[in-house]
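Consider this record:
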Amino acid sequence: MKNNLLEGTLKIGFKGRGMFTTIENPDEVIEIEPEELNTAMHRDTVEIDTETKKVTRIVSRYKEQFVGVVYKRDDGRLTVIPDDRKAYLPFWIKNPPAGTNVGDKVILKLGNWPDPVELPEGEIIKNLGKQGVHEVEIQSIVAERGLPVDFPIAVDEAAEKIAETWKADLEEQVKTRRDFRGITTFTIDPLDAKDFDDALSIREISPDLYEIGIHIADVSHYVRPETILDGESSKRATSIYLVDRTIPMLPEVLSNEICSLKPNEDRLAFSAVFEITTEGKIKNEWFGKTIIHSDKRFTYEEAQEILTAGTGLYFDELNTMNKIAKILRAQNKAAGAISFEDSEIKFKLDNEGRPIEVIKKVRTDTNLMIEDFMLLANRKVAHYAHEKNDGKDHSFVYRIHDTPNIEKLQSLAVFLKPLGYDLKIENDTISATDLNELLAQAEIKEQSHIINRAAVRAMAKAVYSTRNIGHWGLAFEYYTHFTSPIRRYPDLMVHRLLEIYLKGEKPSEKMLTAVSRQVIHSTDMEIRAAEAERESIKFKQVEFLASKVGQTFDAIISGVTEWGLFVEEDTAKGEGMVRLSTLSDDFYEFDEPSLSLIGRANKKRYRLGDKIKVKLLKADVIKRQLDFGIVE
């Protein structure tokens, strides 16, 4: 390769400009002008000439399938305008299938595109139906990100074969597993949960010492390497949670039945068991295959009611575990764990998928308790495996989180300054203690959600890796994902590797090579699934508010630009724009240092973080856009 040719990843940014980076130097960005992209698209792997700053070759396409809406051009040709705004040109449909109409939402495949001056050719492979319809839009969100939906028949058949023999197999497993069926065990999950990944058990050893078991569904016992089930689950890599459905990683006969730790039934588990004092000191730890019997399925609300009332089924056990969890949480925070909080919502839908109620999620002690024990299991499993593989890279699956990028930290400091917060940056980083104090102050001032959101955006993204660098946000030197193998493929890999290390053996080179490839794919699929979840929520936020045009809402200014204000209303947490043109009482100017719009004559100031009242002027469900006006 010539010295001036470089291979890396292209991202399409503002106004269609390309941003080129390499794996070796991810922070060094080379800008490529739109006319020099040479048909390259968002996230493609490309080769560029660093002297001319032109794309010279497309090494591989990130995706070749797109979703969009059919339109007719002035010249009579049918085109598809893609939903993906990073796809900067419409597609020309050379041979549209019969029945293709303007306004249809379709899935198309990128075809011939030899000349970047011409429109790319696209082939319609599926017509989803009219845009704006609930089922069409949800299918579009999933298809746009290349996420699988239905299982192949052979995969379902493989799962059904397991269902025919699993009970007899379970009886055989009793002979070789540590038996927890006589110890108090329960699950605590959301009300609508069907796949119970984890259960907790508790047994008193002495008045100040307890054995707490963190029991995780033993998916690896049923989903074996190099089987059709394993191939499908590794391809999917994660379950997908949308506003109206879950698209599982495993067939439901496994995810909701055989693997799920259902109450009053024996189940196979892979467990992390700790002897913990009431002061949160761990005296002993054990990892291994178990058989359990959950005595009770709690929802978070049910368990919290018992804790709040101070009485009820398993109160003593819940109360003891909650006290220990709080100590573990305090220890983590003292070590530098960042306490990010953000407001979450979910929707109650009618039979046609229309949102009829917004439900704001509340994180209670029981939510936090489960999180704390899952963190403990994940951290300790990672540490154990790290020691067993002598700390060698590429021998285990870690969940890593790098230190924040200095440029993003500086941008965060600029964002926070007008709100009255001074983010201290020393030696190109920030103190976890300082950031936690800042977040605590923001919570008091009811600015926590916009501060949390800005802080999260400034952080590096947590990813899967076979090279351990620790988890900065959690302040853990070793961390992994062990606790959700029903819905995350990396957890399944962790179970397999942990089993090998527990036997005193080493994984094969073939296995480790496959793991190294899979962690990259799993991170990518996690990102796609998260994007789909956010987009489905945004769809329902706008649809919910569409029937409330003309109504007034309490809101907070979440962003300030030279063309207007971004505001987030308080009912459905929908974010929209107050355009500068609607501020008719004065001529307003953007003051960047204070992130404000200031009236030239009246000196009225609209600042980031201000609480205001707004009227909803327009809700465009198709574009997912909200327009507001300020109410004086």
Observations:
- The radius of gyration is 27 Å.
- The chain has five domains: 5-60, 66-131, 153-402+461-538, 406-458, 548-630.
- The CA atoms of residues 212 and 603 lie 61 Å apart.
- The chain has a mean pLDDT of 92.
